[in-house]
Amino acid sequence: MSEILRELLRVSEKAANIARACRQQEALFQLLIEEKKEGEKNKKFTVDFKTLADVLVQEVIKQNMENKFPGLEKNIFGEESNEFTNDLGEKITIKLCSTEEETAQLLSKVLNGNKSAAEALAKVVHQDVAFADPALDSIVINIPQDLIGIWVDPIDSTYQYIKGSADTQSNQGIFPSGLQCVTILIGVYDIQTGVPLMGVINQPFVSRDLNTLRWKGQCYWGLSYMGTNIHSLEHAICKRNGSEKRTENSSPESEASSAFSAVISTSEKESIKAALARVCGDRIFRAAGAGYKSLCVVQGLVDIYIFSEDTTFKWDSCAAHAILRAMGGGMVDMKECLERNPDSGLDLPQLLYHRENQGAAGVDRWANKGGLIAYRSRERLETFLSLLVQHLAPLETQA
Question: Binding residues for Mg(2+), per the UniProt record (predicted)?
Fold first, then answer.
């Protein structure tokens, strides 16, 4: 349903405005951070945090979508609990109230009575946002509303968001850390099959005006349903170091002969890094944030995003997966890929989004248990996998 995608783009931009507004004043921002409790934490981190921006963004997305599409809220799932605790120990449920004044009163409780800060945030929360993309005007698609679910990661790479580094230098267009790694992720999937259908990735912090110190962002989207595939980068030419980068229209011959590039987590296993070094040489990039690393693949900055651990979740991957599907790519279970016989005729084990992991508790119910690989070209992925398996085998024997 193209109307749903239009609304998701609009609310993602409103969410980006909230993320930017919360980061404008450092003193205020420190009031907005809270450590996550057991059951909410990502086991990858010794200490895991959420911010008021995370919770506000999630609730704004849920409430706006419910207002526009009644009944949809029950199928919107997010990373964050909407409870926040202030300095007095009061547990406050964050929600979008019907008026700006009521929302300001609620936020004032979280902000320990800081009325001016609460009013400023409430204004952004209730501010109407216009977002248009002419490419969407030509789409007329009817996806039954009762068949869709939505995964929301309100602010991915919360650590980078809290740290707030604005002067990180990119490496061939890829930022290893900093605010540029922060993304807002909204993924729509079929609740019966688990297949991703629509995705929106909003990057709130792309460039900063050196005079006003205000940030501008960028939004990416894709739709893949019943043979219709369209995305925001359809007519874009990705550039890298000022030269044209390979696009989806490159010939298979030129793709097969070019070296692979990959983006990975700094916490990736040594065995995977060693095998990747043999496949990619020095074209391995490290970056923060699962959403941002996936976005690097969407943008064509790298061929592959690979992560072998089970500490990414459905809300981390659904949005980018939908966009990559629209581009002819996808996101697969890494463990199953490495165990799969390429001559078996079996399809690639795409990640699915409608079932929780049996026997798991807390956030682990929705973990991507086998790790993941994001890619833009199936042919490139198949070649990459064959090389990776070859180089992993001797390493495992040595171990």
Answer: 79, 153, 155-156, 316
Whole-angstrom Cα distance, residue 372 to residue 375?
Answer: 10
Residue 356 assigned ligand-binding role = no
pTM above 0.85, yes or no: yes
- The pLDDT mean for the chain works out to 84
- What's the pLDDT at 327? 95
Residues 6+ apart with CB under 8 A from 222: 198, 199, 229, 230, 231, 232, 298, 322, 323, 324, 325, 326, 327
Q: Which of 166-195 are b and which e, b meaning 16 or more Cβ less than 10 Å from the residue's Cβ?
A: eebeeeebbbbbbbbbbbbbbbbbbeeebb
275 vs 139, higher pLDDT: 275
More confident of the two residues 118 and 149: 149
Cα gap 35→47, rounded to integer Å = 7
User: Do β-strands 228-231 and 215-225 pair in parallel, antiparallel, or remain unpaired?
Assistant: antiparallel
Angle between helical axes of 52-68 and 2-22 (0-180°, round to 10):
150
Q: What are phi and psi of 25, to 5 degrees?
A: -120, 120
In Å, what is the CA distance from 388 to each residue of 63, 381, 393?
44, 10, 9
Q: How confident is the model at residue 34 (pLDDT cuts 50, 70, 90)?
A: low
Query: In this predicted model, which residue has the larger pLDDT, 158 or 112?
Result: 158
d(CA 72, CA 60): 14
Question: Of 374, 289, 383, which is closest to residue 325 (Cα–Cα)?
Answer: 374
CB atoms within 10 A of CB 347: 8
Angle between helices 52-68 and 115-126 (to 10 degrees): 40
| 79 annotated as a binding-site residue | yes
Q: Which residues are catalytic?
A: 54, 79, 153, 155-156, 158, 316
- Residues 6+ positions from 3 with CB-CB distance below 8 Å: none
How confident is the model at residue 31, as a pLDDT? Answer: 60
The continuous run of DSSP H or E covering 125 comes out as: helix 115-126
